[in-house]
From TrEMBL:
Its cofactor is heme b; FAD. The gene is hmp. Residues 147-402 are annotated as: Reductase. This is Flavohemoprotein. It comes from Priestia taiwanensis. Binds 1 heme b (iron(II)-protoporphyrin IX) group per subunit. Binds 1 FAD per subunit.
Amino acid sequence: MLQTKTIEIVKSTVPLLQEKGVEITTRFYEIMFGENPELLNIFNHTNQKKGRQPQALANAVYAAAMYIDQLEVIVPVVKQIGHKHRSLGVKAEHYPIVGKCLLQAIKEVADAPQEVLDAWAEAYGVIADVFIQVEAEMYKEAEEQAGGWSDFRPFTIVKKETESDVITSFYLQPVDDGELSTFLPGQYVSVQVNIDGEQYTHIRQYSLSDASEKGYYRISVKREKSIATQNGIVSNYLHDHKQEGDTLLLSAPAGDFVLNRESELPVVLISGGVGITPMMSMFNTLAGEKSSRDITFIHAALNSNVHAMKGHVERVAKENDHVRAYTCYSEPTEQDKENKSYDKEGFIDLEWLQSVVPSIEAEFYFCGPVSFMKHVKAMLKEMGVTDERIHFEFFGPAASLD
């Protein structure tokens, strides 16, 4: 239980965190990796360079200060972060390191007096305990469920399939031929790779792109660009160097962006680019269960060259009257135009979205680039969709869609 004086001091730092939060968290990562370079085996180096991780941490620290006397308010965020930490292998012993470096960053950037540092040290201890307890339960659940495991488990690539010019699917089965744990549609796994010439291990999280209980896991990986900045170092490695028969190290499935299978409302799945991957898991799960819920599947891509899994979605829609599939191409090829292989040219807009979505009384799920998701969320809010029926997933650190 925090002292009243501690709560008052921490809350008083909210304006400071709003102004200098990213500067503090950027310095925090510099200190932490400088003193503990082994942690670079866990954290995504690209997200550090692009600034997304410092921004996400700054938002989390700001929220913690804002609700330090109502920590139950941030439990959903704690659980979301906890899923990522568990899949990466963040453990309880890492939290004292984080606390020490965070306090040092606050002191350096904000020139904070000792009274503020002491209050934050006390508050951090309480917040860290919440994370540690939540993540301990997640580790236990992942390991103890049927077919579950801890840390990373070797899988064999039993099939490698080109889905488009930029996306390739990897079908994976455990090397030990043991039982495979089930997962919730929308969840992801972490893939750990050691690349020749790289000093540190790289870990990336990829959505499982098929339904559970099929005897394999499937991830569908987009080849990213800018290897020089390490944005794409793992995806290019998987595309170019990992073949059928090779092994990959996977964490147990994680994530809280999952299909609500208890709801009977219609489902609207909206994806942009490689954001299609968690949607395919949801789509295939509903199709495999012979669900009677109306399903509207909307995908936006540049053109057919980069549109993955289009044929499969169209076949399912053709075979089921309650399934509708729509495609938007922002830059259709001449062949796309000749074949009329899309439903809308350009970007998804409000008028078109309203014309294909039968009702706002539905569960809406969307995923894609941050700018795409901001646009989709704004349209859904303008349509009158309530917050509890809007569900979305970030690839990478969380950001604001408002």
